[in-house]
UniProtKB/TrEMBL annotation:
The keyword Transmembrane does not apply. The gene is fabG3. Pfam families: adh_short_C2. Keywords: Oxidoreductase. Gene3D superfamilies: NAD(P)-binding Rossmann-like Domain (3.40.50.720). It comes from Bythopirellula polymerisocia. The keyword Oxidoreductase applies. Its EC number is 1.1.1.53. It comes from the Bacteria. Signal peptide: none annotated. InterPro entries: NAD(P)-bd_dom_sf (IPR036291), Sc_DH/Rdtase_CS (IPR020904), SDR_fam (IPR002347). Belongs to the short-chain dehydrogenases/reductases (SDR) family. This is 3-alpha-(Or 20-beta)-hydroxysteroid dehydrogenase. GO terms for molecular function: androstan-3-alpha,17-beta-diol dehydrogenase (NAD+) activity.
Length: 262
C-alpha cells in the first residue's frame, strides 16, 4: 500500500546512488513505500539485487562505479527506459579514508573526491536534462556534518563533503525554478560504513559510546531518520526550500565544552 505522507513522490522515478546499504538502502525503501519507482545504483550489485527483491517490482538494481562518466551515462539512460524519466535524484554514494594531508597519497585523494564529489556532478549532469524536459525535479546531495567541522585525519573526506555544499548551491542557482537542489549533512549514523570504521578497534562498544556522547541527543542516528528527511526534501512539502545545507546531526557542535558550575 502506497503511503502518501510525502506528496509528489508517487509515480515518479528516483535514482539513489550508493543505494544498496546504509542511508542509501533506507532511502530506496522509504521512497518505494511512497510509491516512487526507484533505481538503486551501487558498486555492490548483489547487495542491490537483494534489496530490490525484498522491496518489490518498483525497485531495480544497477551495478556500476558512479565515478565513471561513461557508466553513469549508460545507466541513467537505462533507468529512463526501464522505470521512466528520472525527476528525483539522491546522490548518496560515499567512501571514507583516514589520513592527514601529508599521509594521503594522490591515488587516495583522487578516489575519495571521485566517489564522494565527482559522482554527484556526473549523476546530476545526466539527470538534469530529464528534469528540465519534465518541467520539474529535485535533487538531494548527502554531505556530512564534516562539511562544517572536522575530526582528525580525514582531510580528503572532509574536503569532499564541503565541496558537496558548494555544488548543491550552484545547481540550485543555475536551474531554478525548475529544479530544487539541497544538501543534507548527517552526523554519525548506524551504517555499514560506521561498522567498517571501527572494525579493527578492540573495544567497539567504548568507541560507539564515545560517538553517542558527542551528540546532545546522546545517541547516533538511524538510517530511516535520514531517509525521511531526504523524502521531505524531494517532495512537494519542501517546495520553497532550495540551495540549503540542512544538518541532521543530533545537535553536535552547539555546546561549548566546559560548563558553568556554582
Amino acid at each position: 500500500m502506497v503511503n502518501d505522507a510525502y506528496p509528489g513522490l508517487s509515480g515518479k522515478t528516483a535514482i539513489v546512488t550508493g543505494g544498496a546499504k546504509g542511508i542509501g538502502a533506507a532511502c530506496v525503501q522509504f521512497l518505494a513505500e511512497q510509491g516512487a519507482n526507484v533505481a538503486c545504483l551501487d558498486l555492490d550489485k548483489e547487495a542491490g539485487n537483494s534489496l530490490a527483491a525484498t522491496i518489490g517490482p518498483n525497485v531495480m538494481s544497477y551495478g556500476l562505479d558512479v565515478s565513471k562518466s561513461s557508466l553513469v551515462h549508460e545507466t541513467v539512460k537505462k533507468v529512463a527506459e526501464d522505470l521512466g524519466s528520472p525527476t528525483l535524484l539522491v546522490n548518496n554514494a560515499g567512501i571514507s579514508h583516514y589520513g592527514t594531508v601529508t599521509e594521503t597519497t594522490d591515488q587516495q585523494w583522487d578516489r575519495i573526491l571521485d566517489v564522494n564529489l565527482k559522482s554527484y556532478f556526473l549523476c546530476a549532469r545526466e539527470v538534469i536534462p530529464y528534469m528540465l524536459s519534465a518541467g520539474k525535479g529535485a535533487i538531494v546531495n548527502v554531505a556530512s556534518v564534516q562539511s562544517f567541522m572536522s575530526q582528525q585525519r580525514v582531510a580528503a573526506y572532509c574536503a569532499s563533503k564541503a565541496g558537496i555544499i558548494g555544488l548543491s548551491r550552484a545547481i540550485a542557482v543555475d536551474h531554478a525554478p525548475t529544479i530544487r537542489c539541497n544538501a543534507i549533512c548527517p552526523g554519525t549514523v548506524d551504517t555499514p560504513m560506521l561498522a567498517d570504521a571501527i572494525a579493527d578497534v578492540s573495544d567497539k562498544e567504548a568507541i560507539l559510546q564515545e560517538c553517542r556522547d558527542m551528540y546532545l541527543m546522546k545517541r547516533i542516528a538511524e538510517p530511516l531518520e535520514v531517509a525521511q528527511l531526504v523524502a521531505y526534501l524531494l517532495s512537494n512539502l519542501s517546495s520553497f526550500i532550495t540551495g540549503q545545507a540542512i544538518r541532521i546531526d543530533g545537535g553536535i557542535g552547539l555546546e561549548i565544552g566546559a560548563s558553568v558550575r556554582d
